[in-house]
Amino acid sequence: MNKITVVKLQEMKHHKEKITMLTCYNYWMAKILNEVEIEVLLVGDSLGMVVLGYENTLPVKVEDILYHTKAVKRGNLSALLVADMPFMSYQVGEKEALLNCSRMLKEGGAEAVKIEGGAGVAKTVKCLVEANIPVMGHIGITPQAVHKMGGYKVQGRVKEEAERLIADAQVLEEAGIFSLVLEGIPEKLSREITKKISVPTIGIGAGKYCDGQVLVSEDLLGLTGKVTPKFVKQYVRLDKEIKKAVDRFKKEVKENKFPSSRYSY
Ligand code: KIV
To answer: CA within 20 to 30 Å of 42's CA: 61, 123, 179, 259, which one?
Structure first.
């Protein structure tokens, strides 16, 4: 696969070629996702929950995202690498946003950043884009606003909310985003937003009309347990496979069957 750039994503929207994006937090997974030619790797702040075991994404630090971005960078050759900016790393002021986001590119090797929010972050987006930092937007369910939303509830179900989300998408496009994540909104609304803006939309729990789809890799792989949100499709239950393998290892060690001569010097 040729190197994916923000320009290539724009062309894919133009040619109606669906975009695939997955979260990626480490070196070996980046290599596997490159082999399958996933176009965008997102070092999501979901790593706070998936990798670090926090209750939500709020405790994630710039250093956490940076550490994992560096690892993914070492395994990634072809996908567009996007670093997700943690809670309060871009809201305090434009100067702080510039300093934190630029670290992802300078030190982490990311090629773009993602920030959550609508019209309220448009000025920051403009400022980042002017500094040559490509920005992916994120509206709908914005997990960093979990307490304000009162949980991870589908957004845009009522008319005023839907209109606000359409306006947010348009303001963000004007501010210069190269792509927009739509999370947890009705399919009809994401279809309308996807038609109304010229940059590619990437959906998660937003139905099939988006220009692309994203999932948390560990959800897709069945590593995050039995109970998942409605939009998660578990393509495999790796948790069961891991348990089976580890159980066999344990049994063989206890019975002195491993290592056999084949695995010994
Ligand atoms: O942090 C994350 O993984 C995300 C995706 C779910 C879009 O923001």
So the answer is: 123
Task: Select which of 111, 183, 192, 218 is catalytic.
Answer: 183
Residue with the smallest CA separation from ligand 1 atom 5 is: 44
Ligand 1 pocket test: which of 49, 181, 219, 228 has the largest number of ligand atoms within 8 Å of its C-beta?
181
**Rounded Cα gap, residues 121 and 94, in angstroms:** 10
> Closest Cα to residue 10, out of 177, 209, 168?
177
Cα(217) to ligand 1 centroid in Å equals: 10
Fold (topology level) of 6-234: TIM Barrel (3.20.20)
Pocket of ligand 1 (CB under 6 A): 23, 42, 44-46, 84, 181, 204, 214, 216
Output the CA–CA distances (angstroms, integers) from residue 187 to 167, 182, 209, in the order listed.
17, 10, 7
Distances from the Cα of 242 to the Cαs of 100, 167, 224, in angstroms? 37, 45, 13
- pLDDT tens per residue across span 17-35: 999 999 999 999 999 999 9
Q: Residue ranges of the domains in the chain?
A: 6-234, 238-265
Per the annotation, the verdict on 160 as an active-site residue is no
Give yes or no for a contact between 44 and 28, defined as CB atoms under 8 angstroms apart: no
Tell me the angle at which helices 27-35 and 62-75 cross, rounded to the nearest 10 degrees: 50
- What is the per-residue pLDDT across 64-116, written as a single tens digit (0 to 9) for each? 999 999 999 999 999 999 999 999 999 999 999 999 999 999 999 999 999 99
**Among 139, 166, 170, 169, CA closest to 154:** 139
Q: What is the pTM of this model?
A: 0.97
